[in-house]
Amino acid sequence: MRILVLGATGFLGRHTAERLRALPGARVLDGGRSPGAALPCDLAGADPADLAVALRGAAPDTVVNCAGVTGGAATALTAVNARGPAVLCEALRLAAPAARLVHLGSAAEYGAGDGARSLTESAPTAPLGLYGAAKLAGTLAVTGSGLDALVLRVFNPLGPGSPPTSLPGRLAEGIREAGPDGVVRTGDLSAHRDFVDARDVARAVVLAVTAPEPVTGVLNIGSGTAHTAREVAEGLARAAGFRGRVDEGGDGSPRSAALPWQQADITAAGRALGWRPEYAFDDTLADLWAEARLRPVRAAR
User: Fold this and answer.
1) To pair with 75 at 20 to 30 A between CA atoms, which of 81, 97, 175, 285?
2) pTM (2 d.p.)
3) Distance (Å, whole) CA 168 – CA 157
């Protein structure tokens, strides 16, 4: 089985490619902008016809799209997260219409939960910002493509390799830089999120890739339990032996204030793929810290 992973050098892409390479008989091809990629491409600016030529050469049985950006200019957010999946679907229709597509969406497509009910796949999509809107546009391009295509709508991923652009990554970096008795300054950490281990996300991708029959539409991939961002900080502090103080008086994220609670209903993923998360919240945070503490400490600013 030939599997093309787009965005294989990103946080979720690395975990996903590693899991897929462990499949018997699988040949995993990396695709993206990184030097040495087996299929060099940039979905944000690619021409569908040119991408189709490259896809014919790669001849994938399955394409996994982990490419995406969470911040930056509006042009990048929309080009990568909205235009990119649309271009990929058009190119696949031209070059490999029988190939399976597994695309990673985002819980930001939903918007705020009501604080009481878990979000099912039939919940209204009402994204609160451009990132969520762009990811939703990408999801609609995939689900409307007519391909053997599935969107895994990922909630808040964390785990080893969490980037410093994410809240868990920033917290780990702050604890490491503060030292065991220092102060870590953050914004308000009261928002509830559904945090899911990136390795569980990767396992969901593997199950989607190897499903014997097509599984289409959208499936939530989360833990099924909402935790506060404060619990993430506390768990990382325990793992690090941090005795200092977390000061929540800093500037917070406007999006967090507008989205105080979100939790996934993961029943459908269990029914369709036989998937459930395996990693416990505290174990994930311990593994995140074990990896983060080995990174070089940034120079003082």
Assistant:
1) 97
2) 0.95
3) 9
